[in-house]
Amino acid sequence: MTSGSEQQEKFAKRRLALVSDTLYFSVLLASLLWIVAPNPFVTISYLFGALSGTAYSYGLGKYVETIGGSIDDEGAEGAGVGQARFAFLILLFVAVGKFRAQGLLEIPSIMGFFTYQLASLGQGLREIDD
Q1: Which of 45, 47, 116, 121 could form a disulfide with 53 if both were Cys (CB 3.0 to 4.6 A apart)?
Q2: How many other CB atoms are there within 10 angstroms of residue 72's CB atom?
């Protein structure tokens, strides 16, 4: 049986792994897009969405960390970021709409946002020894 602080430490490591894997996949895919895509705005749009997706995965991790606790717990101090995690997606849509005339593309931005799903899949397939 593990204590609550040990469980929180394990979860913090997994949350950091999810965010870093999201960033890794984002850079890897953006590099491939830079080589393959003839329009540089495809890569720029993808990176913009990928950064929003990375911020979303961080907020999602903070939200999940606060589940099961009360407002009086010391771990509840980061709950505001988790509750605002959908703001990253909304801001992505607003920014893409605003800067579409300057070349920002919708589909690569949305695909970049959902890169965190690849990292999530990687976390799910990873073998964990606890």
Answers
A1: 116
A2: 6
The whole model's pTM is what? 0.81
Angstrom distance (rounded) from CA 81 to CA 60: 8
Sign of the torsion formed by the C-alpha atoms of 11, 74, 76 and 81 = negative
Task: In whole angstroms, give the CA distance from residue 79 to residue 60.
Answer: 10
The pLDDT value recorded for residue 113 is 93
Q: What are the b/e assignments for 81-120, b being 16+ CB within 10 Å? A: bbeebeebbeebeeebeebeeeebbeebbbbbbebbebbb
Is the Cα dihedral 27, 31, 36, 40 positive or negative?
positive
Alpha-carbon gap, residue 34 to 85, rounded angstroms: 28
